[in-house]
Amino acid sequence: MRLRYLLPLGLFVVLGLFLLVGLQLKPREIPSALIDKPVPEFDLPPVQGRQRGLAARDLRAGEVSLVNVFASWCGPCRVEHPLLVELAAKKVVPVHGINYKDRPDAAAAWLDSLGDPYDRTGADLSGRVSIDWGVYGVPETFIVDRQGRILLKHVGALRPEDIEDKIMPLLRKLGS
Amino acid sequence: MIRALAVLVLWAGLALGQGLPGAPERQLADPAQEERARAISRGLRCLVCQNQSIEDSNADLARDMRMIVRERVALGEKDDQVRGFLVARYGDWVLLDPPFKLGTLVLWLGPGLILIAALATVFALARRRARPPQPQALSAEERRRLKALIEERDRA
Question: What is the pTM of this model?
């Protein structure tokens, strides 16, 4: 058997491997440009009816924190919400929320009816602060270290396995 | 009368539905600056729709990004500074024209290398085909057998 007759088969296998890898890629998930960078400067007032707003200095206060960008009009946010409530109840990490381009009353009603996992909330009415965070679709979730550096970004609704496999191991590593 | 009104309402609906990108937004007073802002926007990727520029996209985020581009242009920033503002937030991905650097070498040079390899293959094959196979000289054994055959035919 001459080797050159195997060449098309070899090329086919290589092409197949490329396509297989391509299938696993998630073109919707854009790698964040802000990983290992400090959180952007911002200072947001709280969501209607809440007392504590969210600012960059709150994330540099020496505590690891989770920042979740959400909106009441966003379907996937509703899906992940119980997980955030559960995570906040366990008190492993303070959970903060940035409310993206929401009606103030709608956001308040949403938190009142579904439960409010957030230690602090920031109402980003114009969406500009979220753009500074590199947000391009809600929900997005960030883990911020003690010095206020962004360590992880998750795009889309959190699933239980994301919390188990991505977030909890990182939090344990950070000793939170 | 009612029919005329209905037509009017439908027309209005169509006009709204068209949603000309950029049209209902506040534009820059200086036409030269507005044109620059639009040129920059045409080179920035909409992160929601991915293969449209923010100039072409109706997405809410694209609108916000166009307004940011206009603000930056109005502040007197250079084109690269305006783009840099969004690259700092969204990475090189936001540029429809990827920059030439180490991480994008394969992207930029890959197609050229594949083309060169393909041309070289085609050239080599064409050359091989153009040259007819040279008849080889007969070996001593072949010459002996040929001679035997000819003698056999002559005898017959």
Answer: 0.76
CB of B93 less than 8 A from some CB of A: yes
Give the domain ranges of chain B: 19-99, 100-132
Asked if B117 reaches chain A (Cβ–Cβ under 8 Å), the answer is no
Tell if the CB–CB gap between A30 and B47 is shorter than 8 Å. Answer: yes
Residue A125 contacts B, CB cutoff 8 Å: no
- Supply the CATH classification number for the domain B19-99: 1.10.8.640
Q: Kindly report, residue by residue over B64-84, the tens digit of the pLDDT.
A: 999 999 999 999 999 999 999
- Convert the pLDDT of each residue in B19-66 to its tens digit: 444 456 888 999 999 999 999 999 999 988 878 999 999 999 999 999
Q: Min CA distance, A34 vs chain B (Å)?
A: 7
User: A131 and B65: CB-CB below 8 Å?
Assistant: yes
Inter-residue contact A134 to A32 (CB < 8 Å) = yes
Q: Say which CATH number the domain at A105 has.
A: 3.40.30.10
The string over B72-93, giving b where at least 16 C-beta atoms fall within 10 Å of a residue's C-beta and e elsewhere, is: bbeeebeeeebbebbbebbbeb
Angle at B13 between CA B8 and CA B16, to 5 degrees: 125
**∠ CA B18-B20-B24, rounded to 5°:** 115
Q: Which of B60, B64, B57 is nearest to B86 (CA)?
A: B64
